[in-house]
Predict the structure.
Amino acid sequence: MCKVNQPDATADAIVAAVSPGPDSDSAYAVSFDDDAPQTVNVTAVTGSDDGTMNVQWARNTSDNVNVTGTVHRIGGPGVHVLKFWMADPTVVLQNLVVDTGGLKPSRLGPPESLRLH
């Protein structure tokens, strides 16, 4: 659960795709509350190609992560449930970062926030 005070939020997923390739469906999905999940194909979004070993592939390989994001319209302020959906077993979630505005750029996201009960 996360507390959201703004109507819009970005959910950045920091994932490791075990075997990404140009024909791979290394994918996951994200949703808030009961909204429909937004599916992200990690390979398609990042442009990483292990066949040509392009610059994005080199970056993802050296960092051992792929950072991708989804934009969500939140119904209103309050506590909301963020759901991460496994669409492909080769994708390993390392971190989820929710930005409702004002998040400062960092290499692998901010420190973990407090849990809400």
